[in-house]
Amino acid sequence: MTTGMLREDALKDKTIIVTGGGTGLGKSISHYLLELGANVTICSRRQAVIDQTAKELMDQTGGRVLAVACDVRNPMEIEHVLAETIARFGRVDGLLNNSAGNFISPTERLSYKAFDTIVDIVLRGTYYFTLAVGKYWIENKIKGTVLNISTTYATTGSGYVVPSAVAKGGALIMTKSLAAEWGKYGIRLNAIAPGPFPTKGAWDRLFPEPLASMMDPTSRIPLKRVGEHGELANLAAYLLSDYSGYITGESITIDGGEVLAAGEFSHLERVTSEQWDMIGESIKQANKASKKEGQSE
Ligand code: HXC
Ligand code: NAP
Fold this sequence. Notes:
Elements: E1 15-19, H1 24-35, E2 39-44, H2 47-61, E3 65-69, H3 75-89, E4 94-97, H4 112-140, E5 145-149, H5 153-156, H6 162-182, E6 188-194, H7 200-206, H8 211-214, H9 229-240, E7 251-254, H10 273-296
Parallel strand pairs: 1-2, 1-4, 2-3, 4-5, 5-6, 6-7
Bound molecules: hexanoyl-coenzyme A and NADP nicotinamide-adenine-dinucleotide phosphate (NAP).
């Protein structure tokens, strides 16, 4: 179990909005932000889910949580979250764009609406929320911070999750572009690209049966395990805190080395020690032969 790495009051007096904060990673990160002294607004489509989470988080941490229903595809609902947060906590300092929709499917099986649904939640939702909060920060001269939860395939691309890859890729470029443009206001934007961190939302849609029984998601990860929520929460809290004040436009991968395992020769970990002996010998013989050839020329 990972322990928190920041000082207890690292986020004291900060107010952070966490989209999709009722479940999964958003909930775990919110828990840690509260432990660090932040006020947190969680929002998502299902009011009952965020109400229940808000209660749990307040009971567990003694912190202050506001739950406001919001579909991130709707700018008016986003404005409402912002207004309610300011009314309750006085201001907003941070935004964690964490809401997402995703499922695996061969792309040719997708309807237009299926593609739009994912892109609208992930890309449109991220830029709508960022625009609303950014305008408020610029107008009120607040040096706010945005953190976007991305994926490793936002940069590599990936089959079978193409709408999500398209949307996460777009959101990542927005992160970098706005970091360049809004730096002059003291606004920072960063991203985290997580590998697999078990959550019900992701596992139901990305590793459903019979897939779950057919493959072990840890087998191709160099560190041979999935991530712990606390590991991600530590990184997220750091990037939302003033300790990361000189980092902007950056995406930090936290995946146990999973993307690197795609490297040309990384699959050679399956070769046994005896096979390496034979391979070494074979390469040396080839080297000798090539030297001899050179001498006889
Ligand atoms: C093909 C599908 C489908 C599937 C839905 N659709 N599921 N098409 N295969 N498995 C199609 C529907 O038929 C419909 O198109 C369109 O998508 C919209 O579906 P709705 O159910 O009406 O949409 P909605 O109620 O808005 O739900 C959105 C959702 C749902 C994305 C489809 O799964 C959801 O609410 N997800 C939220 C949580 C989530 O996805 N969490 C996982 C994040 S994990 P038609 O044309 O039929 O009307 C993640 C990280 C990945 O992002 C990295 C891991 C390592
Ligand atoms: P999750 O629990 O399903 O979280 C997704 C959240 O998004 C839910 O709380 C959902 O709440 C909310 N949401 C969906 N559509 C929304 C909408 N239209 N408006 C507002 N909120 C909406 O899954 P998770 O694994 O924690 O994912 C969290 C983030 O991590 C996502 O950005 C995901 O892409 C990213 N990520 C996860 C993993 C992983 O391994 N788990 C890996 C890489 C990246 P409602 O249904 O109530 O709206």
